[in-house]
């Protein structure tokens, strides 16, 4: 990644202060709200509704425990993990071959496929939940983990295709060709040369698919009743649940996301670099 | 190498998947919006949608929210991307911090801002302990449309600027730095460099970012649900109510078609207004 | 035995015709260089031999066996790529061993061959490093070692030295030639550097616009170019051309001078001579007006004008000439060549 030459900094003291000040402010802007949520989640239920509120939590796990033992939460959490996991597997298994084909071959219809993938961006995908609800009733997939995972895969698949496309494009074809001339067939060359090189990137796009599914609210809420995921559960208890339950639930949703974004941070930019051309 | 069929075999699963679970369902939803269960074409669901008392409000709020949020996010993400690109140390850490909201769902973001705006929340606590108010204010009550709106705007800006930032930073990474150097050599100051070099070369990324972001803005739902319940009607919330609460999936489909329509209009608009002439890309 | 026969091989990419109809036979253990300007189809031909590209039509035989339907791994070839393609996730040792492991050789044999080729290429001390820890020249050595380790019958190289600096290139040129001669392989080597081609090749195949124009020894290609293109491509500076009109059978008028030449049915030919094959002489046949004198140390490169044709002469560096002078030059008779301007072939 090339960087723009130093134009903002280095001109004057005032400019440097303005620069550092804005960076600091924007960091706080992102971090403070998360801190406040976590602080709430780590306070006892009575403190959550107390006024005025203290900035430092009492590190009481009662709210979180209450949330985790609340009726239906354990199941919802488990459903969320299952759906996200299936989504992750499906989007990589279906998306990566397509990404490979796009990066390595020139063939008739390539552009049509790319347009199909890019078109998904112009559509509000959560709306798919409506027709899917009808389709799933017909084939008996209504209110199932797998049915929801299919909808989530539709959300994650375009990303999987484009990310793996850019990953494979980043590996010189000569490496593969060298393997062929050294005695590999296509599959062996892929396993021995390409796969080890793209593995971290594939893992990143898998995690990305996981996060997409983990966070998805609308389709989950529309498509599931018994097998509600955590976001669907939270959404449906917004009206009647006590505050500390909401905050503990929010924190449980946010924490994995923090870790995941940390894990894939290197790839976030690489994948958008090529994916939007 | 050999085997002309190989690319097609590799694409087949993804193509089938997208046809069955993306293209076909969208035709289905259109059918639901315009046809009865018996298969007769009708506009009655569209009329039902349009004559509902919440319809106009939901449409207006959705559009106005997008209109307020997206320009601010565009400016903010451009600023952040520029700051990051002229940073020497700590760049990775700052980028990580700024992209954290990317992994946070809209519902969680709503709950986060609820912690700030609710009656016993942090904003009230702050105002109270600095002596600016004598007792907590209700920000999110059913009469406080203005503050709910503001809270939603803040939460959305907080949550969804990251996606634009990522796209723009990635796009800037593709611009060779020689262009900036050339501009400087020929006497452009930093603002001119930004408007005459960065922005035009960033057009494809801006386009992607705006298309993506505006469509997400039309889908706004969980943030609003968390902060305002049903006090601030938006289109996606109406879809949810029709489909899930009222089990009226025809009208839900009609609302869906409306969201689809404004999404497509905005996409076409950005494709056209930010098009790059053939051969003028990097 | 690994004789390579290329029979009427053609290749198009959509509308672009990269190779017209190539015929070339490369003898066992011969070192053939494919030489030509950028885009003339050298890489394409090499990749068709390797099996990385499928010919649109034609046949490729190696060792008497038709192989153009076989995948690269079954052709008994090894290839060195222009960017080396050293696997970044493997150590140098594992890179060199890659082909041997694919062939399922036992560990002691792998060890023996890796060490042998590594010492041949002087990279024994690098065996545990990764590609990212090597310089360009070292990477190039690894790529060659990896190819040699499989003891292939045919080695294909696509501009293997083009990414090296001039000095290193000269060194590697000599070294590679020695090593390849020792290893008894048939070599096809692509380059657009004619000095490289001249110094390494047993035979040069000069390519132009998807055709092989001439395939002959370096001296032959230099002395007796088969076509106008070869004459104007090879040599630095290349051959001079002056139009010639027929006076009578076997006698031609070149810039006013009468020069005996081939008998031909054509009325016009081109007279051609290399810049170093002319001597200044009083009453020489050709009169040339000097336009530019470039002292190059060992000699003078003099650009002149003969009937509005650029005409270059290489002269002793102690001759005193300045622009505007009229030179009188005598061509060496046995070095004069003639080309037909219509077919562009040598007469
Ligand atoms: N995959 C391809 N698709 C379309 N055209 C191609 C492809 N590969 C090569 N060509 C065209 O075929 C012709 C020959 O290309 P080739 O790579 O063989 O040239 P080359 O002699 O190796 O040139 P260079 O010295 O620059 O490497 C060129 O006109 C090139 O544009
Ligand atoms: Mg080439």
Structure, explained:
The complex is a heterotrimer of chains A (277), B (282) and C (347). By secondary structure, chain A is mainly alpha-helical. Chain A contains twelve helices and no strands. The radius of gyration of chain A is 23 Å and the shape is globular. Chain A has two domains: 3-41; 69-275, MetI-like fold (Orthogonal Bundle). Helix content of chain A is 74%, strand content 0%. The two termini of chain A are 16 Å apart. Chain B is an all-alpha fold and 282 residues long. In chain B, 73% of the residues lie in helices and 0% in strands. Chain B has helices at 6-34, 44-51, 55-85, 91-99, 106-117, 122-129, 145-173, 177-185, 190-201, 203-218, 222-228, 235-245, 249-273. The model of chain B has no long low-confidence stretch (mean pLDDT 85). With 347 residues, chain C is an alpha+beta fold. Chain C has a domain at 240-339: Nucleic acid-binding proteins (OB fold (Dihydrolipoamide Acetyltransferase, E2P)), CATH 2.40.50. Chain C has eight helices and 20 strands. In chain C, strands 6-7-8-3-9-10 form a six-stranded mixed β-sheet, sandwiched between helices. In chain C, strands 13-12-11-14-20 form a five-stranded antiparallel β-sheet, with no helix packed on it. In chain C, strands 15-19-16-17-18 form a five-stranded antiparallel β-sheet, with no helix packed on it. In chain C, a hairpin with a 2-residue loop joins strand 17 (299-306) and strand 18.
Q: Tell how many strands the DSSP assignment of chain A holds.
A: 0
The quaternary state of the protein chains shown equals: heterotrimer
CATH class of the largest domain in chain B: Mainly Alpha
Q: Separation of termini of chain B?
A: 30 Å
Largest sheet of chain A: none
Into which percentage range does the β-strand content of chain A fall? under 5%
At the fourth level of CATH, the homologous superfamily of the largest domain in chain A is MetI-like
In round numbers, the mean pLDDT of chain B is 85
**Number of H- or I-type helical stretches of chain A:** 12
Uncertain segments of chain A are 1-10
C-alpha geometry of chain A? globular
Radius of gyration of chain B: 23 Å
For the record, the count of structural domains of chain B works out to 2
Overall helicity of chain A: over 70%
Specify Rg of chain A, calculated over alpha carbons.
23 Å
